Amino acid sequence: MADKQTATSKEMLQVESVIGRILQVGVIFSAIVMAIGLGLFLITGKSGYPGTMVPRQMGLILQGTWQLKPYAIMMLGVYCLILTPVLRVVVSIYAFYKERDHLYVAITTLVLFILMVALFIGVHG
Amino acid sequence: MMQTALLMLGVGIFAGIAGSILGIGGGMIITPILTLGMGLNIKYAIGASIIAVIATSSGATIAYLRDNVLNLRVAMFLEIATTIGAIVGALLTGILDPKYLYLLFGCLLVFSGWNMVRKLRRGQEVLQRVEPDKIAAKLKLNGSYYDKAEMKDIDYQVENIPAGFSVMFGAGVASGLLGIGSGAFKVMAMDTFMKMPLKPSSSTSNLMMGVTAAASATVYFFNGAILPGIAVPMALGILGGAVVGSRIMQVLPAKWIRIVFIPVILYIGLQMLFKGLGVHF
């Protein structure tokens, strides 16, 4: 019993450090993108768009980022930040799978599925 | 412009530190500053606060995962309840009078605050039963964490899983219907109902908040509620603040965190009760 206990927590530790590292990369990446956008915005004093317009379609944001428009880069960074928790759920599924914890692979997949339903309702509601 | 950016950065750092220590989103701090302090439209304030919740969650849990305080199984299991709740809440908008929800959750939070005072008096943090809870054992929800304040590993058990699950469902409904982060409810579900120690409760709540908020954040993102000039410096401040805050949290004795948490939870609870009763101030 005691042996089993330590094995489980050891595995979990490993799983969590893998998740931690991937998430770190994701969060730092979005922070860097946001910081670049903000830096450009403050230095140039221009948002890259007329008036108070904020680009919100993905196509417009990517196009603006390519043209180095500050607001577009900032919005891209925000979008990456929004995706970091979703990334965490996806990585957790993989981690539980590696741990051969089928129960939690199922539970976490269910969470991802519900999240997708929520996103779908959000976009279309 | 530079002034706004610096101000939001500062607000963000503060909100990030406070939010990550307590396991509540930055919304409670961010929204009043933006609406009352800066006269920003509530739509943009909500947009900013939902980004704040995600930034707090992502910033804080980077450190937590490495330090192994978080309980990932509890987080994912309860996340089922919160996400379904959030969908139900969003669908109930316009059908269910939010008044009753405010009243219900106001009462729950006040009860939880009172319960925390009792816990503080007894000085007992960790549940250790001879007979572990059956559902908790089956779902492998019991865990352990290293407490840096006490410098030792702390094994803990959880119980009352159905009650915790129900409160989490309610927290999801509240966040979908009322547009609030409901971090305080999440800590309450784990700490008060499931008897999980405060530190893992707080960091698990932080992780869960980010996941729940991500779903609604996309909506706000595409309907134009995010002002990059405000949200970006704030998010950067929060990310930094949350990394620092989560480090502070680990070395703080759980008792101190609880002492800070009690007035906060009572404040939110009373605010909700008043809102439910139709009193505004």
Automatic annotation (TrEMBL), chain A:
Q: Kindly name one Pfam family recorded for this protein.
A: DUF1634
What sections of the protein cross the membrane?
21-43, 71-91, 103-123
Transmembrane among keywords:
yes
Q: Which domain of life is it from?
A: Bacteria
Q: Which InterPro entries match?
A: DUF1634
UniProt keywords (A-Z) are:
Membrane, Transmembrane, Transmembrane helix
**Protein name per the record:** DUF1634 domain-containing protein
Can you name the source organism?
A: Levilactobacillus tangyuanensis
From TrEMBL, chain B:
Q: What InterPro entries does the record point to?
A: TM_pro_TauE-like, TSUP
- Domain of life of the source: Bacteria
Q: What is the lineage of its organism?
A: Bacteria, Bacillati, Bacillota, Bacilli, Lactobacillales
Q: What is this protein called?
A: Probable membrane transporter protein
By sequence similarity, the record places it as follows: Belongs to the 4-toluene sulfonate uptake permease (TSUP) (TC 2.A.102) family.
- Looking at the UniProt entry, the stretches that span the membrane are 6-30, 42-64, 70-93, 100-117, 161-185, 229-249, 256-274
Q: Which UniProt keywords apply?
A: Cell membrane, Membrane, Transmembrane, Transmembrane helix, Transport
Its placement in the membrane is given as: Multi-pass membrane protein
Give the species: Levilactobacillus tangyuanensis
What the entry lists under Pfam families is as follows:
TauE
Its localization reads: Cell membrane
